[in-house]
């Protein structure tokens, strides 16, 4: 009576449009990526591309500088296996600001933690604890993937009135629990702790007391020693 | 600096070959050139930020998953507008495929081909996004079920059931649009 899947597939492949990207899109993407890279790579203004050919010596000098920097970095990184939490705080703050700027707060926008938690499955090699704190005044707004500490991490978005809280979660290097530590950076409050094998960083423009309250509630709600 | 340029180059080498597929998916989901343009650009920037997370994974489903998310973000944020676009476009497509008498100068065959294409495009366009995307990814991009599941962020079983549902809807609408045109049907089967 009706056509088979194969016939339908053939029909679609033969007749349906396969839209082709406009000319120049690849070039525009390349430009955008480079611009992003320039912003991300250097807090100081990105050096203008060297247009004139200054010859071999300058190249060698740059290479030398790069090699020295890399060597220095390697020494620092090898000497301190745990990344300095200063750099981490920097990264957390930068991610928070970027998430607000790019109108890209959530990849999965939902206040239902039963929708947000499974969304991460298959995208991360760990399952972040997701709880809704709407009753406590911090409704869950969604989740997305973000990048911190050299790996992909879960970013959970909570709201408190007009304030946005980004909560970054990823597995801790060791299973040691760590009490919340509060810090501030560029006018944002940060609090980080470790619990149940996960480390968490919360960042927001909330005041310190409220953010600490948020952290305490979360710690309380995610403290399920039997679950993991 | 040379490190970061390497990263840019690696990203472009990994991601740009999939631009056609990315565009096709975005264009089918958003049904508008400008919107697709914005979504694809935004998705590539997102992908670039998470590029280091891509280790030993196939770039294609990874990237298309991000493109898909960017499209759905837009649809969520502009739900009402999107509905309207959907409605208008549906009507337009039907209006285009409505004339049934071929122009005298046009070879009938070519005309049939065009009408056929418009009919099928309109039928796919009319599917809800989750069904439209599985048809586009499976039939046009010829992707594996596992990859489609990754892109859509759903289990394999859901992909299979969406696909069969989508096919059923397509059959239905292709049959409905041409009541009594038995000749057309027979030809499809022989294609």
Written description of the protein model:
The complex is a heterodimer of chains A (228) and B (191). Chain A has 228 residues and is α+β, with helices and mostly antiparallel strands. Chain A has helices at residues 5-15, 25-41, 56-79, 85-101, 113-120, 208-222; strands at residues 140-148, 151-160, 163-171, 178-185, 188-195, 198-204. Chain A has a domain at 85-222: Phosphorylase Kinase, domain 1 (2-Layer Sandwich). In chain A, strands 1-2-3-6-5-4 form a six-stranded antiparallel β-sheet, sandwiched between helices. Chain A is globular. The model of chain A is unreliable at 44-53 (pLDDT under 50). Chain B is built from ten helices and no strands. Chain B has helices at residues 2-15, 19-30, 33-49, 59-77, 79-97, 108-125, 129-140, 145-152, 156-177, 182-190. The longest helix of chain B is centred in the C-terminal third of the chain and has 22 residues, at 156-177. At the A-B interface, helix 1, helix 2, helix 3 and strand 1 of A face helix 1, helix 2, helix 3, helix 4 and helix 6 of B.
């Amino acid at each position: 009576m009706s056509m088979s899947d194969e016939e339908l597939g053939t029909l679609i492949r033969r007749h349906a449009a396969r839209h082709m990207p406009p000319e120049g899109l690849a070039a525009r993407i390349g430009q955008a990526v480079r611009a992003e890279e320039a912003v991300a790579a250097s807090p100081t203004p990105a050096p203008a591309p060297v247009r004139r050919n200054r010859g071999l010596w300058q190249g060698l000098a740059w290479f030398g500088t790069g090699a020295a920097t890399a060597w220095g970095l390697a020494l620092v990184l090898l000497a301190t296996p745990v990344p300095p939490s200063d750099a981490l705080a920097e990264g957390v703050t930068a991610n928070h600001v970027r998430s607000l700027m790019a109108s890209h707060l959530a990849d999965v926008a939902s206040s239902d933690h039963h929708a947000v938690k499974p969304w991460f499955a298959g995208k991360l090699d760990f399952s972040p604890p997701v709880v809704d704190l709407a009753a406590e005044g911090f409704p869950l707004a969604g989740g997305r993937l973000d990048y911190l500490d050299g790996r992909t991490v879960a970013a959970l978005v909570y709201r408190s009135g007009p304030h946005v809280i980004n909560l970054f979660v990823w597995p801790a290097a060791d299973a040691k629990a760590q009490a919340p530590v509060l810090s501030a950076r560029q006018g944002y409050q940060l609090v980080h702790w470790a619990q149940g094998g996960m480390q968490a960083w919360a960042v927001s423009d909330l005041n310190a007391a409220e953010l600490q309250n948020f952290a305490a509630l979360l710690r309380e709600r995610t403290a399920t020693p039997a679950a993991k | 600096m040379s490190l970061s340029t390497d990263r840019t180059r690696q990203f472009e080498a990994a991601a740009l070959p999939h631009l056609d597929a990315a565009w096709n998916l975005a264009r089918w989901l958003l049904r508008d050139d400008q919107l697709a343009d914005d979504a694809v650009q935004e998705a590539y920037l997102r992908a670039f930020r998470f590029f280091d997370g891509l280790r030993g994974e196939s770039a294609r489903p990874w990237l298309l998953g991000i493109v898909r998310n960017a499209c759905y973000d837009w649809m969520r944020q502009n739900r009402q507008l999107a509905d309207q676009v959907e409605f208008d476009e549906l009507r337009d497509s039907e209006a285009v495929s409505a004339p049934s008498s071929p122009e005298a100068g046009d070879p009938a065959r070519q005309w049939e081909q065009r009408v056929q294409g418009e009919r099928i495009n309109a039928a796919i366009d009319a599917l809800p996004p989750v069904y439209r995307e599985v048809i586009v990814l499976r039939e046009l991009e010829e992707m594996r079920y596992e990859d489609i599941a990754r892109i859509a962020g759903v289990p394999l079983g859901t992909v299979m059931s969406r696909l069969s549902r989508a096919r059923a809807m397509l059959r239905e609408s292709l049959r409905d649009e041409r009541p009594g045109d038995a000749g057309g049907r027979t030809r499809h089967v022989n294609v």
